[in-house]
Amino acid sequence: MAVQFKALQPIFGGVTFLMVEVLGAWLVDFPLSVVAGCIIAKKMGTSEARYGALAGAVFLTIFIILVACIGGGLHQFTTFFDVFGLSNAVLLAVQTAWQQLGFHLVAIAFMFLVSDYFLCMLGGILGFKIIQLVYPSETKDGLYPKIATHS
Q1: Looking at beta carbons, which pairs linking 37-40 to residues 24 or more positions away fall under 8 Å?
Q2: How many CA atoms lie within 13 A of 131 on its CB side?
Q3: Phi/psi class of residue 59: alpha, beta or left (left: φ > 0; alpha: ψ in -120 to 50)?
Q4: What pLDDT does residue 143 have?
Q5: What residues contact residue 42 under an 8 Å CB cut-off, 6+ apart?
Q6: H-type helices in the chain, by residue range?
Q7: Would you list the domain boundaries of the chain?
Q8: pLDDT recorded at residue 68
Q9: Nearest CA to 9 among 99, 106, 17, 21?
Q10: CA proximity to 41, closest of 144, 135, 145, 120
Q11: 120 phi and psi, to 5 degrees?
């Protein structure tokens, strides 16, 4: 991602941070939330969509905590955790965005975070639905609800 920041910084200026985060949400967070939804659905054997949404939200929360710990906290002690020089690139992009956008950056980042949660919740639901389609007999409710027939 540091390469993305360095390549896009001259083009996008203050919104580079937001553009890279949006790309990351669609190319990293969403597919991984689908995988998390599939794994949790396979382990739980349930087919309720609310569990898929919960799986996506929990995935993103854990992902954000891990990135914050590795990029923010552990980077100060050793460069081993600084994956591809990401911490310095993100810090530069945030500083540039803050200079050009000011307080609006906080509002935009909050709206992005909310949309990222909804995107990951959708990914979790999709993961649950994929498991329903692939393994219909292993889910509690099955693929389709039973229809009562009168003879």
Answers
A1: 37/123, 37/124, 37/125, 37/126, 37/127, 37/128, 37/130, 37/131, 38/127, 38/128, 38/130, 38/131, 39/127, 40/124, 40/127, 40/128
A2: 27
A3: alpha
A4: 46
A5: 131, 135, 138
A6: 2-12, 16-24, 30-44, 49-67, 86-101, 104-134
A7: 27-136
A8: 77
A9: 17
A10: 135
A11: -70, -35
- Start-to-end CA distance of the chain, whole Å, equals 63
Average pLDDT of span 132-150: 62
User: Quick one: DSSP state of residue 109?
Assistant: H
Lookup: tokens for 51: 């569990």
> How many other C-beta atoms lie within 10 A of the C-beta of residue 139?
19
**Model pLDDT for residues 27-82, shown as the tens digit of each residue:** 999 999 999 999 998 888 776 778 999 999 999 999 888 877 776 666 666 666 56
Task: With beta carbons less than 8 A apart as the criterion, state whether 96 and 17 touch.
Answer: yes
